[in-house]
Design brief:
single chain; 391 residues; alpha/beta; Rossmann fold; 6-stranded parallel sheet; 37% helix; globular
Length: 391
Amino acid sequence: MPRTLGFVTSARSDFGLLLPLIQAAAAEPGLRVVVYATGMHFSPRHGHSLDEIVGAGLEPVLVRVPVAPEDDSPQAIGKAIGRGVAAFAGVLAMVPPDLLVVMGDRYDMLPAVLAALPLTLPVAHLAGGELTEGVIDDAIRHAVTKLSHLHFPTLPAYADRLMRLGEEPWRITVTGEPGLDVLRTLAVPPRAAVLGGLGLDPDRPVTVFTLHPETLAPAATGRAVAEVLAAAAEMPGQMVLTYPNGDTAADLIVAAIERFAADRPGCRVVPHLGRTRYLHLLHHAACMVGNSSSGIVEAASFRLPVVDIGQRQGGRLAPANVLRVAAERAAVAAAWRQALSPAFRAGLEALVNPYGDGHAVPRILARLRQEELGPRLLVKRFHEPPYPSAP
């Protein structure tokens, strides 16, 4: 009997990182793949990224779980989590995998893991042990860790944190970030084709801009986006501004960037670029500005300068290409100018991305393929790391 791996994807961000692993698993003899699509993939406002899943040839193995919040309010998100648990309980009972594979920290990932618990389905969790101190995702990630049975952190420091959370060392495999594997063989079109396809001038520098809300302080979003866009108004060159995820106060950011770009030549608002076009743009960009996790995890592979704003990515290891600043006009503008300077970019020529060597997928797949299923995997025991004696 083939082993069935079920992959849950809830947003454009995790799908792009999971796709190399999904494709490798689908090509592996003795493995069967099911993809459960949920959350923001069904949101037309955010680009209806379900189309990207279908476009990747996954329709034959795709199970749709169309649960998305009605708006970006905390109440709507809470209700969507509840509906998601009910929906996944039904779906996982009808189409159960042998192992359920989830990534990260999104609120719309949590329902799948909660539903799997009473069904006694083992869960493999990618990218656990990290920190994002400014958002509710931080708590969700650690909750998913405690509901999971295998762990694939990206860095040894994150593996250590998992053990401090009580996870047994044998359950943990440090792999790197699977989404980086595709970069080893990425064929990038010429600059003129990539920028020209967005209606931009290939002879001028371009900044990639993505700002998400800090969901532990959503009331501060209005001031933050105003300060950041005030800095943006001072910057030279062109900008591609992408929509935020569907978090609380995301609509406020969408409205602000749409107004900002409306009367500025060289500014393009794109709700959803798609994974491949996004990576092509990073290759040709002059810098990235905002608070996207891709600025921490992926940009270093392109030696791309990044201005990381605020606390959304607080606690994550930041490579040398990242300049961290508060959401204040002067600080953002100064860091943005530094990121655009030839001297700063030149200083990144020897940068090696600490988040992976491009071989994470085979490491993960080997464990998923070989792990013995049964009571040993399902019955978790709290690991007590050695701690200093209390005073």
